[in-house]
Amino acid sequence: MSDDVQSGLEGVVAFATEIAEPDREGGALRYRGVDIEELVGKVPFEQVWGLLVDGTLEPGLPPAEPHPLAIRSGDPRVDVQSALAMLGPEWGFQSLIDIDDEEARDNLARASVMALSFVAQSARGVGRPPVPQREVDTGDSIPERFLIRWRGEADPDHVKAIDAYWISAAEHGMNASTFTARVIASTGADVAAALSGAVGALSGPLHGGAPARVLKMLDEVEQAGDADKWVKQALDSGQRLMGFGHRVYRAEDPRAAVLRRTSKEIGSKRYEVAEALEAAALAELKARKPDRVLATNVEFWSAVVLDHADVPSTLFTSLFTCARTAGWSAHILEQKREARLIRPSAKYVGPGERPLSDVS
User: Fold this and answer.
1) Whole-prediction pTM value?
2) What is the DSSP string of 60-82?
3) Residues carrying an active site annotation
4) pLDDT (tens digit per residue) in 250-266
């Protein structure tokens, strides 16, 4: 690799955005200037979607239209990615380059909430009859409707847990899936194609699925009965503690703070063991690596909150998809307004000019 090429584009500023501001030093996350501390537990996810996309809480995200999931692979991520891609031709979405902002926003709202519906339908499982629409319509919020569509009922604490998680994970600046969505949008494609591509970027284990690995640690600590001892043994054996440290923040991840609060408010069954593990891990990490800031990140308390809502770890990435439809939609619309094809350069570092006879 050439010394003047930034591998992975880390630290390279590709866009100017008005959508979200992760405060690197202060440990805050603001959506269009509003701290998520002011949103979680006070404003429902559907209005946070509106804040990110429109800059206003109303009208926000509407309920999903009745639309059965046609593709059932057994993998919700595959089901959702495929079903989203099909919305373009099924609903007649036109290319972003050919429509105005109002139509693009309407398409994004319809497709985003269908992603939530598709996750719920896929999670329900193959062979189980769908929940009647009249029952889904009894839900007062989008998270409540999601749970009814999935399970046929919605425990209020589960609704609160999922709402808090979705708001916390709704947007976080530039990452693999958001960059993918913007690249696709920059080509002028329809919004369903851009959202589907973003879901595809979550198929790898390095983006979106990390909270599932926190549960294994909590299980082991609970069995051991001694968080301090477990942490020391884990670090001595070279094991990485999931849920600590972040590439952006130099303080506690603000999303971890609001989800810790939510976990306590809903009486999470893992709250005490999670609190003990967190305290032991932070103390030991500080003692062993005093020059590094390794604070709690969003993965840790996301796992605790989603587990309390009886979300299996195999669905964590799909719940992240639901949340991130807000940020993706905002970036797709922002990219449409920028009206410029994203086309970075690559520096050639291969063999110099040579005859064909030199090729084995």
Assistant:
1) 0.93
2) -PPPPPP-------S-HHHHHHH
3) 246, 299
4) 678 899 999 999 999 99
